[in-house]
Amino acid sequence: MSTTKTQGAEQGSHSNYRRSLGTIALTATGLGSIIGSGWLFGAERAAAIAGPAAILAWVIGALVALTIALTYTELGSMFPKAGGMVRYGQYSHGSLAGYLAAWANWIAIVSVIPGEATASVQYMSSWDFGWAKALFDGKELTGSGVAVASVLLVFYFFMNWFAVSLFAKTNTAITVFKVVVPILTAGALILAHFDTGNIERAGGFAPNGWSAVFSCVALSGIVWAYNGFQSPLNLAGEARNPGRSLPKAVALSIVIALVIYLALQVAFLFAVPAADLGANGWGGLAYHSPLAELGLAWGLNWLALLLYADAFVSPSGTGMIYAATTSRMIQGVQENGHLPGVFGKVDPKTGIPRPALVLNLVVAFMFLAVFRGWGSLAEVVSVATVISYVTGPVAVMGLRRLSPHMKRPVRLRAMPVIAPIAMIFGSLVLYWGRWPLTGKVILIMAIGLPVWAWYEIGKPLSRGHKPWRELAPHLRAGAWMVAYLLVMAAVSYMGGTEFGGKGYVPEGWDLLLVAVIALTFYYWGVRSSWRNPSLVRVEAEIEAAEAAGAEEPAAESRPGGDKATVGT
Prior knowledge:
With about 575 residues, the protein is mainly α. Helix content is about 70%, strand content about 0%.
């Protein structure tokens, strides 16, 4: 991989980060990411897809997220680096698999930022003012709605421009508010109207069948919601004691969020007026601001006002968090060798990677221009997120095979069982995302490959180098992921009609087929891991830091152009 950056410069960049975040701040970051716009819209969207059985979808989503998160907590404690989620595939499999995983993860996270701004504006459209109602046409934001959302994006940007300490203090306070309001909302709606007869109306508990429950996990914003667990991992470079605080923060944020989301889903299901279910049932609901409108329906004007206010606070808090974490991810991608050096710079006074913040702001504007509705963004984010998930189980076991003696502050004995189960769960959710959405998002993954090809092939050739020999092991190690995406796209196309496919694979057998495919690629992926330059360098870095008596490695150097000199 070509590079002009020196190791010393790299370390200097990382040394500018402030290790000031403890367990509470990291948990607040994770919980603040999870409780964003998802709780404002998730209950209605889940009910529209699965009816009352949406309750089970939230539980399934939490189990999937927690299982996958366990694999990442071990990786995060091993490599407490800023933007950690974009690095692990690079350590275990080299540049191709590492880049695909990083690209998928970044696309999934950066697109959340405009999604949060869109959610705030969509809730605002329910205000009883003509200009407010003109912000949203029932399906997507209007031109004026996009303008207001753009102002919110700039606000998220500047809240992260100055200092990590300001971000942490602001986020903790916002997170407290974001947790209190959903709990208060659920309690108020349950006390105001609790019609258990809604379970039997409009088709019963699972009016659209059990396949709808599974699709609900992937399409209703549930994956979008729980995806916030990775925010503490992306801020690992700023954690005081990552080995202890990261796993606690990740697990606590998921469990607390599950309880809150279940309460909100139950409250929503039983607060919907029977007349609103009508002829089209749960799928016919068309609220612009679901919980606030239910509050107004049952005379809870104070709750509606509170929700309209929180429609800015909750999404804005999450938007600020994701603006922070995605900037660290961009720095990680740059240090992997796939972006210009400017995006790896960290301001020495504030500890903020400001050029990365600017890049993410530009990309957020692009997403806002294309996807103007919360629902459309939630679907894309969810499928892209699942694609990024599958590298965690493979990477954690691949690194156990390659570096069994490496220090692991978090090491689960059951990981050899948890990792393949996590791979199956992630693959099933990807399949549940339904064709053609799965194919479209996999195509988005392919769009990023020219950037990888430029840094790995084009740039070296332009300098007179022949990269093929050095690149060959990276291609072999990453072949499993390319093949996995192609096979999953094919299975999604040929699978059951209930998941958007052509129906060539019988119902039930399609889920078994996906599980078998997941295990096949899991074992292929683990066996494909190799001692690539990135892993060799970070191991040397950790050993040097331990010899010097440091708790964590000071920095990671970019995998550079000296591949051929590194032993395998």
